[in-house]
Design a protein that fits this description.
Distance between the termini: 23 Å
Shape: globular
Bound molecules: glycinamide ribonucleotide
Strand content: 25-35%
Number of helices: 6
């Protein structure tokens, strides 16, 4: 089973989807620990409810981003994860933390990357007037939301959408998208080669569409 460390800052619905899939025998993985930058994150409660160790540390207690990340990742490394999953982890990570872990950290982001990086992606999509929006899972690199995209799910933007309705439509697709990606990774069908995402030994010309 793939050993996961999950980083989450808030609600934790993606984490819960992972925990439920594992409990149902639908994902061959084990969540070895959940880590947060917010002590009040609901994600921590989802973890503890399933007896997964859950830890939060606060950026306020560290002088720099690098110092915070060093503390965070020493906690993460202590559970010896095969893969680190950012599931609603809302802190920018320093290059010092990310670069040595290239290919071992993934993130789910609520847009069809490379479109709409950063925050408020649903409002960004509405403001841009796109007909299609969605979510992406990508390998994390030092460039914010800029690492190789592994898989995407698309949803239509419909008349009358506001950011909240659009976010809900995307979130519904995020959970199966993340699970499908984790299954590919657990089965060893995807890994990060020196020149990008590899799938069945071939560089993916475009991300998996799920
Ligand atoms: C999800 O929509 C995820 O894609 C997004 O935060 C939400 C977390 O929901 N992540 C980002 O915006 C990362 N920059 P959850 O806590 O219920 O899983």
């Amino acid at each position: 089973a793939l050993r996961l460390a999950v980083l989450a800052s808030g609600r934790g619905s993606n984490l819960r989807a992972i925990l439920e899939a594992i409990a149902r025998g639908e994902l061959d993985a084990h969540v070895a620990g959940v880590f947060s930058d917010r002590a009040k994150a609901t994600a921590l409660e989802h973890a503890r409810a399933t007896c997964v160790p859950a830890t939060a540390i606060s950026a306020k207690d560290y002088p720099t981003r690098e110092a915070f990340d060093e503390a965070m990742f020493s906690l993460v490394d202590a559970v010896h994860p095969d893969l680190i999953v950012c599931a609603g982890y809302m802190r920018l990570m320093s290059a010092d933390a990310v670069t040595p872990r290239a290919g071992r950290i993934i993130n789910i982001h609520p847009s069809l990357l490379p479109a709409f990086k950063g925050l408020h992606t649903h409002q960004q999509a509405l403001d841009a007037g796109v007909a299609e929006h969605g979510a992406s899972v990508h390998f994390v690199t030092a460039e914010l939301d800029g690492g190789p995209v592994i898989a995407q799910a698309r949803v239509p933007v419909v008349p009358g959408d506001d950011a909240e309705r659009l976010a809900a439509r995307v979130l519904e697709r995020e959970h199966p998208l993340l699970l499908a990606t984790l299954r590919e990774l657990a089965a060893g069908r995807i890994g990060l080669g020196p020149d990008g995402v590899q799938h069945d030994g071939a560089i993916l010309a475009s991300p998996l569409q799920l």
